[in-house]
Specification:
There is one protein chain. The chain has seven helices and five strands, in the order E-H-E-H-H-H-H-E-H-E-H-E. With about 180 residues, the chain is α/β, with parallel strands linked by helices. Strands 3-2-1-4-5 form a five-stranded parallel sheet, with helices on both faces. Helix 6 runs parallel beside helix 7. It starts with a strand and ends with a strand.
Length: about 180
């Protein structure tokens, strides 16, 4: 095993997946490829729960302002075509900064253990599609990802992203609880 793809959303479960990926990389002398799909379907309140933002007051403040703002009123067609559309809009530039912080945090964990890592570009596609596409591009030997994301409702079942990814790729997958 030479390459491990680690998709991460910065959640607590993603942190557990990172720990397992680090152990595997250490044991097999593998490189960790760090990947993040923009959290476009998340509300500002959900993003504020990310531990890695505790150290970044500017990002936290921007999210707090957005969380206190008005809910957007989207046309019914838009809501029907995208039921995961958040009620409060988070600009793509801010989502990019959050993604960058998530990836930097994961890379620092790799560096602490002297493991080779590479940050892949933040992706704007829906998470499952972005992960599958990236896996097809980089051909990892394994994908290690969290089973659940940031939303509470996702904690009741096997996460749809991890399920979709595990069914759609040809390499081994470890979905971490």
């Amino acid at each position: 095993m030479k390459k491990i793809l680690l998709p991460t959303d910065g959640s607590k479960i993603a942190g557990h997946a990172l720990d397992i990926a680090l152990d595997l990389a250490e044991k097999h002398d593998a490189q960790i490829l760090l990947f993040h799909a923009m959290l476009q379907d998340k509300e500002p309140e959900e993003l504020l729960k990310l531990q890695i933002l505790a150290d970044d007051q500017d990002l936290s403040q921007e999210l707090k302002v957005l969380s206190e703002g008005k809910k957007r009123s989207a046309p019914i067609e838009e809501v029907l075509s995208n039921p995961n559309l958040p009620e409060k809009f988070v600009p793509p530039e801010l989502l990019q900064k959050i993604g960058d912080q998530i990836l930097i945090h994961a890379q620092k964990a790799c560096e602490k253990r002297n493991l080779a890592s590479e940050i892949l570009p933040v992706n704007e596609k829906p998470a499952a599609q972005g992960i599958v596409d990236m896996a097809n591009n980089v051909n990892p030997d394994m994908i290690v990802l969290g089973m659940r994301g940031l939303r509470q409702i996702e904690s009741m079942t096997f996460g749809s992203v991890s399920s979709d990814v595990c069914r759609s790729v040809s390499c081994r997958c470890i979905a971490v609880h």
